[in-house]
Amino acid sequence: MNFTSVCKGLxxxxxxxxxxxxxxxxxxxxMIIGYPDNSxxxxxxRVAADFFVNEIGGQLITPAEIxxxxxxxxxxxxxxxxxxxxxxxxxxxxxAFISDEIISALRKFVEDGGNLxxxxxxxxxxxxxxxxxxxxxxxxxxxxxxxxxxxxxxxTDVWTVNAHLGYWKGFLAPxxxxxxxxxxxxxxxxxxxxxTVWPAKAGVGFxxxxxxxxxxxxxxxGSEMHREDHNCMWDLNAYQYTADGRNTMEKFEAQNNCVILxxxxxxxxxxxxxxxxxxxxxxxxGRIVANGLAACEWAPRSGANAYHRDLKQLTxxxxxxxxxxxxxxxxxDGIVEADEAPVYxxxxxxxxxxxxxxxxxxxxxxxxxxxxxx
Length: 374
What we know:
The chain is α+β, with helices and mostly antiparallel strands.
């Protein structure tokens, strides 16, 4: 497989109509920003907020507008915190996000049925919101300070999100240890609708992962990009559990009433959680989706992100999932060239070159559907 053909295939699902649209979440969603307006110089948060307003059609809530944090007015609120000088711990987040007033307002919002999307360093708010105990706070945190900022650096690989969790246990473990019931395929979740599939063992010489994942950040052609590399997520092996489970992923989910949706692209065991869907803590309360993956970076310092459309789509899908309970996520029309060949997988996730009769997963243009081959 040559580099040009792989890049062409990966680009097909990227070329989509810009139809995230104002009706994606209508006025049902809002975003809390940590500044009086969105004209500040923090590119990571500013670019995210510009997208939210201009392409999602949501409203911004400033620190002076806490009264707008009201579940009777909005279904879902996004909080995105991404800065270079933050130490680990929610108490070290910017003051605008951790005042007694805003924490109380957010707690009431969730108690009243409002839903939250917490991204990057904002995942740590899961603790003061009393959704998890402090011992289960994010513990993979890219720390920085004014004197030693977390500036990241250049790289040529593509950063992806893996939603085919526990893949090693089902496919790569010693044969006597394999167990397909410990493979958790979350690729059908609404947040992953219409994302670019980075194929397993892509054949391009970099980012050669064992299973398909979703491309989020990189030039895609082997040239350099400077990324700030801010993770704020969960090392599942580092916690003590009282809940039962066959592995750390099951234990964490049982302990915290949640579903792990994604991890780093190269992780195929149960070690790390990057995106988590926290179920409502009680009937009538809201849910919280937390995404602490460095791959979801809005403003790389240099290099054009070939998968910025996918970051937008993931965000739009997440807000739609939260703002319209029961919906499957934002739809966007994937552009599929006539000569693009579909790829087939059996129901165990194994690629099949020449499918015989039976049920398969057909992937084409970044979309996966179940089909019956006769």
